[in-house]
Model the fold of this input.
Amino acid sequence: MSTVSPIFVQPRAPAAPASASSSATGAQPPATPAWPQAAIEALFKLPFNDLLFRAQQMHREHFEPNRVQLSTLLSIKTGGCSEDCAYCSQSAHHDAELKASKLMDVGEVVAAARAARAAGATRFCMGAAWRSPQQRHIAPLASMVRAVKDLGLETCMTLGMLEAGQAQELKHAGLDYYNHNLDTDPEFYGQVITTRTYDDRLQTLRHVRDAGIKVCCGGILGMGESRRHRAGLIAQLANLDPYPESVPINQLVPIEGTPLAGTPPLDPIEFVRTIAVARITMPRAMVRLSAGREQMSDAVQALAYLAGANSIFYGDRLLTTSNAQTQRDRELLDRLGIQASA
Ligand code: SAM
Ligand code: DTB
Ligand code: SF4
Done:
């Protein structure tokens, strides 16, 4: 028997479907949150088996249980970023050993996208180490979107903060998703990033939503935050109206030369709990088991799939660090009887 009242862990109102783009105001949390912080903290406190059972039940109501979507990442502009995100190798404020580079040519991007498609990916995510793109970058970025889409891949970009007009131009080129993470709880945010505010992030999310681009928004676990902060991050995401179509949950990849390099690793059970809580509170979202999989055992990844993760970054590299290798992923998915899906 659970010690937590089942009534206590119900949301105040049914969570908004990810597809229902009802609100013209986009990403602002509503006045009465669908998921109060206390209800999310109560989910975290459930016995692990009860939590995973609920998450798996929720997963089966909305998705094929044995399918995982594959996205491949490419860093199209690496390093030299003016932001000071404490986890990131690409910040000019830190001393990570990294070769900075300019924006790639469209031809190189298309070659990488072709290789990703051949390996089985259905979405191609292009990431740039910018605080925000300059207007002169938008035309080449739009060409990349068009060319990758022509290959039959879904397109995703993550470029930092976007103005409303820039989001509209990328939408016009055919951009399907924009990745812009809230990363952590608003209270903990200032300990990780000082060069922008939480509201800056929310404003870009509104611009993306208003342009009709699907939102990919999640965070990082294992930065030294508390469980209350993890619950706070999930509350922020789940109370977006509508909540994101795609929710990447990253585990910190500690990188030498960054302020978070020596952070003690997060308990893997707590990581899996967070995936389960994301699944329960955002039932129709694709929950992506993102950075940190290389460092995870097969058993922890299997638990994350059981908890409702149904998307991964697939390919030997993330942005500046290595990912779980393709061959290992193929073998693990095969051992689990999980198929790749669109
Ligand atoms: N500059 C853009 C931005 O910040 O939105 C796009 C690129 S940024 C690298 C994309 C996301 O990668 C970050 O928001 C963060 O969640 C994740 N990330 C970066 N470094 C990471 C690390 N060392 N471990 C885990 N996740 C990381
Ligand atoms: C996201 O949430 N995780 C990805 C993607 N969106 C852009 C990035 C992970 C980066 C991991 C560290 C690195 O390779 O630099
Ligand atoms: Fe720049 Fe993005 Fe890295 Fe922050 S996470 S330093 S914004 S590239």
